[in-house]
Amino acid sequence: MTAAALPLVEQFSYGLDAPICLTWELTYACNLSCVHCLSSSGRRDPRELGTAECRAVIDELQRMQVFYVNIGGGEPTVRPDFWDLLDYATGHDVGVKFSTNGVRITPRAARRLAASDYVDVQISLDGATAQVNDAVRGPGSYGTALRAMANLAEAGFTGFKISVVMTRHNASQLGEFKALADSFGAQLRLTRLRPSGRGAGVWDELHLTAGQQRQLYDWLAAHGSSVLTGDSFFHLSGYGAALPGLNLCGAGRVVCLIDPVGDVYACPFAIHPAFLAGNVRDPGGFTRVWRESELFGGLRQPQSGGACESCAAYRSCRGGCMAAKFFTGLPLDGPDPECVQGHGERALATADTAAAPRPAGDHSHRTRRAPVPVELSRRRPAGLASAGHPPVSACNPDPLAGFTPPGR
Amino acid sequence: MACAASTDLAGAAFDLDAAWRLAPQVQVRPERFGALLYHFGTRQLSFLNSPALLAVVSSLATQPSARAACAAAAVPDAELARYGRALGTLAASQMICRRDPV
Amino acid sequence: MADHPAAQLADEAAHDAAGLDGPGRADVVADEVLVEEVSIDGMCGVY
After folding, report:
1. How far is the C-alpha of A154 from the C-alpha of A220, rounded, in Å?
2. CB distance A191–C34 less than 8 Å?
3. Residue B13 at interface with chain C, using a CB cutoff of 8 Å
4. Minimal Cα distance from C28: which residue of B?
5. Nearest CA distance, A287 vs chain B (angstrom)
6. Lowest mean pLDDT among A149-158, A274-283, A313-322, A383-392
7. Chain C contact for B48 (CB, 8 A cutoff)
8. Which residue range is the domain that position A185 belongs to?
9. Which residues contact A231 (CB under 8 A, 6 or more apart)?
10. How many domains does chain A have?
11. Inside any domain, residue A107
């Protein structure tokens, strides 16, 4: 009689000999300055791993039998050796899925990609219209992405992914995103905004409202596996039936990040010393960090759900996203800030959010290239008289400027 | 050694006496609990929660039948139906496929 | 894999009957733990 196997969740909780979904940010350099960038990218870090060092990492991944590596950045294609490294990986049994804003996906590049069986491409897009997208990703970024998609489709590369970070301003565009993906024979992926990197500064104003979360959950449930989420919304499983996927935090257990300077973090959304496990330049390389680091060893112990364990939804939501809790200043053994039961919102109300950890390392472009999110509205705030009344300038010294006594 | 022409396996019981093999685009990684299988075509991941099942799957291509592979892996007769169902799951998700015997 | 909430609930009922843990494991074949299949397109939605 064979011994009963552990449930899958527990298998993962104790760690694997090699990561399954390893993320490798190749560079902090980027031609864009997206307001929510999880890695605060823009300027290249001079300590970046060189080509030979990158090949050595790929050699390690091959020995560990990593199935595929998720490559991103910054914008990975701005590295001059990007295509060489791509070929090196696929030539050494390591599949590649890379994420790009499309800037270097020319027709020629698209044809090269279409010819490979072991490369997946993902184009980032955060609005179904240029207006919504460019407010987050910068002027012209929508056009760049659409051109890249057209080039891929033209080259016969169907099945590429369009990856969208869900925000308050694109939440109403779900149908349009799906139609866009369908028009290219592409797969739509929706991912969760987290308060990581530059995202920390815009999270309050960009994260989904409770109502939008519910709508998203219903929409995802209706679309099943035709829309991917990469397990990004497992905290929504607290609403009821779980969405497809593992539905648990894989940080340090199933996934981790290798950053452009070789630092190994538990998760791409947790670039902070608290989640730094080691560096691939250390003796033993990435292999030793993955298998022996103290940080990962700790994450592979059974985690306490704390107060959440008594909640009926805990079996489904598993307490939500570790990075979301960390960067909003919430305890890791408590509710996710966007807990669907509202426990997170209540916790935030009493938490000292000003003392929340700050993202480590800022590689943002120094000159202000990022667009300032501005909402233009014709709606006047209550209290002002007619439509002809101009908005009150912040420089107006009159303390009663704009004040309308009640009853008028 | 290519896969034999695919047949519709939905609902059909797994044929233990046929010759099978791992699909060409599948990579296997042994793990503490058994193994991980990743299909580069379907992007699907399968978990084999038993080292014995890993041994069966790994030897399919060199055994005349799945039944023989189970015997070689010392799978008890009482477990054969259960292993057959597991292999059926793998066949349905294209992780393993029929091969022409010989 | 269950695409529809109703189908998912039916799967869950089968799991509960078999005594298996985890309401989200819609991919687990009822009464069988030798093979579990998951569609992993990337953890945490990064890539």
Report:
1. 29
2. no
3. no
4. B89
5. 15
6. A383-392
7. yes
8. 8-299
9. A245, A246, A247, A248, A250, C40, C42, C43, C44, C45
10. 2
11. yes
Chains that touch B (3 or more CB pairs under 8 A): A, C
- The average pLDDT across A101-123 equals 95
Cβ of residue C6 closer than 8 Å to a chain B Cβ = no
Cβ-based contacts of B82 with chain C (< 8 Å):
32, 34
CATH code where residue A178 lies: 3.20.20.70
pLDDT tens digits, residue range A208-267? 999 999 999 999 999 988 898 888 888 898 898 888 777 778 889 888 999 999 999 999
Whether residues A262 and A316 share a domain: the answer is no
A57 with A151, same domain: the answer is yes
Q: What is the mean pLDDT of chain A?
A: 89
Q: Let me know whether A155 and A216 are in one domain.
A: yes
Tokens, residue A234? 């497992």
Which domain-ending residue is among A278, A299, A320?
Answer: A299
Of A158, A61, A118, which is closest to residue B25 (Cα–Cα)? Answer: A118
Domain presence at residue A376 = no
Q: Do A122 and A261 lie in a common domain? A: yes
Size of interface A-B (CB pairs under 8 A): 35
Asked if residue A35 is part of any domain, the answer here is yes
Same domain, A249 and A328: no
Q: What is the pTM of this model?
A: 0.83
Q: Do A251 and A195 belong together in one domain?
A: yes
A291-295 LR contacts (CB < 8 Å, sep 24+): A291/A17, A293/A264, A295/A252, A295/A266
- Examine the pLDDT at B1 and tell me if it is beyond 70: no
Q: What is the pLDDT of residue A39?
A: 94
Q: B7 touching C, CB under 8 A?
A: no
Give the model confidence (pLDDT) of A283-309 as tens digits.
999 999 999 999 999 998 888 888 899
Q: How many residues does chain C have?
A: 47
Nearest of A287, A22, A16 to residue B33 by alpha carbon: A16
Question: Is B49's CB within 8 Å of C37's CB?
Answer: no
Are A26 and A260 within 8 A, CB to CB?
yes
Residue A161 DSSP label: E
A311 to chain C, minimum CA–CA distance in Å? 15
Confidence of residue A149 (pLDDT cuts 50, 70, 90): very high
A310 and A295 inside one domain? no
Shortest alpha-carbon distance between residue B40 and chain A (Å): 7
Judgement on whether residues A290 and A158 belong to the same structural domain of the protein = yes
Spatial neighbors of A349 by CB under 8 A, at least 6 apart, are: none
Range with the poorest average pLDDT among A334-348, A375-389, B59-73: A375-389
Q: Are A363 and A45 in contact (CB under 8 A)?
A: yes
**Type and span of the H or E element at A99:** strand A95-100
CA–CA distances in Å: residue C25 to residues A241, A343, C9: 10, 25, 11
B29 touches chain A (CB under 8 A): yes
- Residue A211 in any domain: the answer is yes
The model's pLDDT over C15-27, given as tens digits with 9 standing for 90+, comes to 333 333 344 444 4
Which residues in chain B are closer than 8 Å to C29, comparing Cβ atoms? 85, 89
